């Protein structure tokens, strides 16, 4: 009986790990990923706020917005300054986070996505991870019809 229970437990545990891996297909696997309930669903107008005047960060945001707009057909707008959006994507510079130059935090909720990093390389890594959670069409070069533009909610800490 103990062997049967152990076998069932191992089966459920491995199935859960496989399910999480398919829901969060990030390569390489982040150092820390916490699944959360729900999805961030792209609004018709997607706002991306850059809480900095750093030109590198603004450039990342504008490139990302352009890609999203191209493949999804959604209107995307980038704002830079000392504010965040309640619904949309926020790129937030942090200090003394001890993440290293490529480290980032990625927090996805049904209302907003927040990427926090200390360095431009960290924002690039965070955006790359976010793209891997998006529908495959994000990797294309033209608009794709019929795509369900949503991202599974989770919290990620990584130092690639």
Automatic annotation (TrEMBL):
Enzyme class: hydrolase
GO terms of molecular function: beta-N-acetylhexosaminidase activity
TM regions (residue ranges): none
Keyword Chloroplast in record: no
Secretion signal span: 1-20
Pfam families: Glyco_hydro_20b
Record flagged with keyword Aminoacyl-tRNA synthetase: no
Enzyme Commission numbers on file: 3.2.1.52
SUPFAM superfamilies attached to this UniProt entry: beta-N-acetylhexosaminidase-like domain
GO biological process, one term: carbohydrate metabolic process
Keywords, alphabetical: Glycosidase, Hydrolase, Signal
Occurrences of domain Beta-hexosaminidase bacterial type N-terminal (ranges): 24-159
Protein name: Hexosaminidase
Species of origin: Runella defluvii
